[in-house]
Amino acid sequence: MAEVLGRVTLFDPVGIAGTLTVVLAYLGTQLRRVDAKGLGFPLANLIGSALITVSLWRSFNLASMLIETFWMAISLFGIGRWLGERRAAGAAEAGRPGSPGAPC
After folding, report:
1. Domain count within the chain
2. How do the residues of the chain divide into helix, strand and coil, expressed in percent and rounded to 5?
3. Highest mean pLDDT pick, 53-57, 93-97, 100-104
4. Where are the membrane-spanning stretches (predicted)?
5. Residue 102: inside a domain, yes or no?
6. Range of the domain at 14
7. Gap between the Cα atoms of 36 and 101, Å rounded
8. Does any domain span residue 63?
């Protein structure tokens, strides 16, 4: 155990924080406390994956880097989709009579 602790660097707790972030986001969706269609879920996954990727700078592993790259790309897609849906909902709201910004 002492040998393992002797090899711990700053990268290790960063990677652990990333892992916990991703796992807790997933747990939150399963407990119905995090909306998988909301911004929080892909944002937590993006942040978690980025932190895990930082930890890979010290101990590179191609398979882990590949999955984190895909995880971040999918998370960015989810964030983009959420932003697009918000924009579309705002445009639809602005077009409704009586709403601010609607034509008179």
Report:
1. 1
2. 70, 0, 30
3. 53-57
4. 6-27, 39-57, 63-83
5. no
6. 7-94
7. 31
8. yes
